[in-house]
Amino acid sequence: MRALKTSTALATVLAAAISASVAGTVALQWSPATGASGYRVFYGTAAGNKLTAELRKHILIAADVIAAAKAGDKAKLADAQARWRSNANDIAALLASVNPRYWTAARMKAEMSKHLALTTQEAVARLQGRWAADVAAYDQVQHHILHMSDLLADGLVKQFPDRFENAG
To answer: pTM here?
Structure first.
């Protein structure tokens, strides 16, 4: 999952630096299917395919957010941000649906919301050319991404302790 979340952050940075369509294409090659393949092992093909679809949407919508922001189109930006929040909630609900004990709906929604907020801070700093703030925001995004990865991994190990050696 660490690679999965890192690719969203990198796609956002790329989108701010180059065309959104190119960044979206690069991001799609990095991780949604790869990240969901591990998910499939535990939750099945249908759930893995659903997660892959939602993660692809997540990255493509992030590119839409950046493109609208770069163009100064407030209406498109508001629409893209609303779609991004809705998609983040869908990802949170999907995760909670397969592991409700360790990935509660409220916790997943809060983590995804924080992910969007931090990623937005990073993108805004980059678009405004505030490079020190961009670097600081990237560090925050990275820290949170690793936190989310650990949270998801811990929940997986707790849900399936017999499938992990030395789990406890």
So the answer is: 0.80
